Amino acid sequence: QRAPVPASVDVVIVGAGFGGMYMLHRLRGLGLSAIVFDVAAGVGGTWYWNRYPGARCDVESMQYSYSFADAIQQEWQWSELFAGQPEILRYANYVADRLDLRRDMRFETRVTAAEFDETASRWTVRTDRGDVVSARFCIMATGCLSAARMPDFPGMDSFTGKIYHTGHWPHEGVDFTGLRVGVIGTGSSAIQSIPVIAAQAKHVTVFQRTPNFSIPSRNGPMPEAYAQSWKQDYAAKRAEARMSRNGIVAYPLDRSAIETPEAERLAIYEQRWVSGGTTFMAAFNDLAVNKASNDTAAEFVRGKIRAMVKDPATADLLAPTNHPIGTKRICVDTDYYTTYNRENVSLVDVRQQPIEALTPAGLRVGEREYAFDAIVFATGFDAMTGALTRMGIAGRDGETLAAKWEAGPRTYLGLMTAGFPNMFMITGPGSPSVLSNMMVSIEQHVDWIADCLASMRKRGLDLIEADLDAEDAWVQHVNDVAHTTLYPAAASWYMGANIPGKPRVFMPYIGGVGAYRQKCDAVAANGYEGFILGEPAPVAVA
Ligand code: NA7
C-alpha cells in the first residue's frame, strides 16, 4: 500500500538513487516540500537494478560513499576494498533509514510525463499510477546508466530458454548450475559477471564484438588499518577528490609516459598493475592526450593479457587494438582473463560476422547455431540521455526534450537545458558525471542546486532557466575539450556509438572534476551567470 501523493509540492525529484536521496535531504534542510518517484521498489538506483553475479563498484569503497555527513562516513564499515552490489545497496538503505528519507518517496511509480505550464510557471508531473503533481521545480536524478539497452535481434521472442539483461537482474538471483549459457557483450558488466557465471555453469560462450581493457581490482577484505587511515583524514581526502581530475584520489604521476625511459616506465606500469584498480590511468599525465604515450600503456596491458591467457588465438581476440586505452571506461575485474583458461569457457568473435538472430534453441552467427539454456545480455545502456528522453519531458511551447536533443544533448553545465525552466539534472550530459567518481559528482550537483534554490528564495525569485547563448557556448566548450583528447577516437557509449541512430556527440565533460567545480562555483558567485532568473509568475485573476 502506497502512501498518498500530494497534489502540489515545491519540488518533484525523479529517481531514488544516490542523487535523489541526497537531493531530498538537502531540500528538507531548506524547508522545501518534495516528493521522490522511482520505478524501483526501494532506494539505490543503479545498485537496486544491477544485481548480476559479480556486480561491484569500480571505485574503491572508501571513496565511493557520501561525504556530506561525517557521522555517516565514520559509522559505516565497508567489508571489502571494492564493495559488491549487495553491500552498496545495504549502504543506500542504511542512509535512507538514518535520514528517514522514505516517507517522501513513492516507489514502484514511473514518471510518464513532466510538462511545463507557462502560465503558472509550474511543472505538471504524471505517473503510471495516475498521480498528477504540480511542482515549482523538477529535478531529474535519473542516472546516467539506467535505461537498459536490448539489441533487437530477429527472433528475440522465439528463444525457448531464459533471457536476462545485467541491468535488470531478477531479485531472487539466477542459478546457472549445469546450464549452457551465452553471454553477449564484453563491457564492464560482462567482465564482472563472466568469471562468476563460469564457476557455476556447464559451459559459457562469450560473444565479443569489441574487446575492452581491464585491470585487476586486487579486491579483498578491507584491512581495518586502511579504513581507519581514510576515516581519520576524511576531510582532507574528500577535499582532494573534489578538486581532482576524476573525483578519485589516485596519486597521479605528473610526468609524460613517452618521455620516461622504457625500463622506468614499465616499472611504473607494473607497480600500478600490482596495486590494481582504477588508478592505472593515473600512471602518467599524458595517457589521455598523447597517442604515443597511450600506446605504451595499451601495449603493457596487452602483454599482460597474452601472458595470462593460455590459448594464443583467444589471447589475440581479447587484446584490444581498436581504441586507445582508457577512451572507453576502463574495466576493473577479478579473474576475468584467466577465466578463458577454463575448459567450460569459449570466446566467439562477432565483430566481422555479427549475431544474426535468436533461434528457438539459442542464437545464430553466420551458418553456425549455438544452443543455450540461458542468454545473458550484457549489452549496456542508452547512456546519459536515454532515461531523460524516454520520460515524456516537455518544456516551453510544448517542445519535448527528445526533440530538442535529437542531434545530441544540449545543456548549460549539464545542470539545465534552455527552454525547460526550473528543471535541473543531476549529473546531466555536459558535466563530468560518468568520467568521474559518481558520488563526488552527485554531491557537487546536489549542493549547487540546493544553494541555487536557497539564493533564489532569498532574492524573491522563483524562475530559473539556462540562457541559450550560454548553453551554446558550453556545448561548444565541452566538444572542444573532448577533441583535445584521444576519447573521441573510440566508438564508445560516451559518444552514443552503442545505440544505432544515436548522434555521435561526446556527452560528458572531460575538463576535469576540479576545474568543472570551480567553473560552477564561479557561475554562482557571479549571480548565476548564463542563467535567466525571473520573478514569480503573477497569480491569474479569474
Ligand atoms: P557497455 O560497457 O556498454 O558494454 C556493452 C557490451 O555489449 C559491449 O561489449 C558491446 O559491444 C556489447 N554489445 C552491444 N550490442 C551488441 C550486439 N548487438 N552484439 C554484440 N555485442 C553487443 O555496458 P556495461 O553494462 O558492461 O557497462 C556500462 C558501465 O557500467 C561501465 O562502463 C561502468 O561504468 C559501469 P561494443 O563495445 O558496442 O562493440
UniProtKB/TrEMBL annotation:
Its cofactor is FAD. The chain crosses the membrane at residues 31-49. Keywords: FAD, Flavoprotein, Membrane, Monooxygenase, NADP, Oxidoreductase, Transmembrane, Transmembrane helix. The keyword Metal-binding does not apply. It comes from the Bacteria. The keyword Membrane applies. Signal peptide: none annotated. GO terms for molecular function: monooxygenase activity. Belongs to the FAD-binding monooxygenase family. This is Cyclohexanone monooxygenase. It comes from Rhodopila globiformis (Rhodopseudomonas globiformis).
